[in-house]
Amino acid sequence: DTEVTQTPKHLVMGMTNKKSLKCEQHMGHRAMYWYKQKAKKPPELMFVYSYEKLSINESVPSRFSPECPNSSLLNLHLHALQPEDSALYLCASSAPGRGLEQYFGPGTRLTVT
Amino acid sequence: SQQGEEDPQALSIQEGENATMNCSYKTSINNLQWYRQNSGRGLVHLILIRSNEREKHSGRLRVTLDTSKKSSSLLITASRAADTASYFCATDATGAQKLVFGQGTRLTINP
Asked: How far is A108 from chain B, CA to nearest CA, in Å?
């Protein structure tokens, strides 16, 4: 299984809502990533988990809260988002010793109204 | 910004022609990778070239790396309509433990 899955595919939420994005991989990868991507721009790294511990937070606002319950799962909890947070949110994973070669999920298209 | 620069930003060619896109970066690297992204989808890893390698091939893809110029190129030969996508280079900078993506090239293959 060489797939990273993400749910939901699409999400529309109001600025007062709380929602979560979910990412799952069963490749035994021990590093998992959240990226944000705006239209016609490259992915921007948000968070990195390594062996289930948060290793990098790219100064992301606290309205985004990551969680790694186990080595296969990665969540991104969303609360009090702004319209400018609307974007494609991508999850990725990588194996140790593979030079950060990353496998990406299909993304969640988030719209904040 | 640590992000690399890619050129051209957009490239439109006829099916069967070769497509070349370039990437420049700023720091010393462990490796450089190329990814493809179809519209609104996730990225797909294409090829990884290590800092001590100068050229690498994978099917119709040829990647070169010049660490003295801090630049790389991706050549897609005999292009197909299915190659239409955005292409990003990404560098694994020494000590950074993360990838930094270039701005991307939007490639359109016209049938």
From this structure: 9
